[in-house]
Design goal:
Elements: E1 8-13, E2 27-32, E3 49-54, H1 70-85, E4 94-99, H2 105-117, H3 123-133, H4 141-150, H5 156-171, H6 174-181, H7 185-190
Parallel strand pairs: 1-4, 2-3, 2-4
Helix pairs in contact: 1-2, 1-4, 2-3, 2-4, 4-5
Length: about 190
């Protein structure tokens, strides 16, 4: 099944942004920590539309940090709707989604955008495509849960996320300790191995 969203989809971290400047990115979704200074990498990009969201990469409350909320996911869906409704549909497009490392918030956001653009695609197909785009993907479970609900997916994204975590832990066992050290052991525990 051909996945529709944009001909080119990129997920990356902040340090990878300069290398993307020559790739004719047309739409950027930036997800960064609230206290992060404005990013300068985009000054070398050509014309593009950019949306910035600011929240932390957590799945349970941490004092002094901002959790992902349903409103953040709604803004991601608004970004997707804006892209879909643009007047220049025939012009080549390239969506870049980034967060700090390009592993969690950005991959959850890209999954949300792909699920929105492909309402009939199975969750399994969507996660397979995500793993091709960003092999190290470990989507933020809180964001996926909100997307599942807002897109009316009836738990299919959350269930497939557990299988995705299992596949990641099989191929990258070190992720278990790393994700646990980030205070997200609940995601490791959800993995279907």
């Amino acid at each position: 099944m051909e996945m529709m969203l944009a001909p080119e989809l990129t997920i990356c971290g902040i340090e990878e942004l300069p290398a993307q400047s020559s790739r004719q990115v047309t739409h950027v979704l930036s997800i960064i920590d609230p206290d992060r200074a404005e990013l300068t990498a985009f000054s070398t990009y050509g014309d593009h539309v950019r949306t910035t969201l600011r929240f932390h990469d957590i799945i349970s409350p941490v004092p002094g940090q901002i959790m992902p909320t349903p409103e953040h996911v709604e803004k991601i869906l608004n970004f997707g709707q804006y892209f879909h409704d643009r007047k220049d549909l025939g012009v080549p497009s390239h969506i870049l989604v980034h967060c700090h490392m390009g592993v969690s918030r950005s991959t959850a956001a890209m999954m949300t955008l792909m699920a929105q653009a492909n309402p009939d695609a199975s969750a399994e197909t969507l996660f397979e495509r995500l793993a091709i785009i960003r092999p190290q993907a470990w989507p933020n479970s809180q964001m996926i849960a909100f997307a599942d609900e807002q897109l009316g997916r009836k738990g299919t994204l959350r269930r497939e996320l557990a299988r995705h975590y299992g596949r990641q832990l099989k191929s990258k066992p070190e992720y278990g300790d790393w994700i646990t050290s980030l205070g997200r052991k609940a995601e490791v525990d959800m993995a279907i191995l």
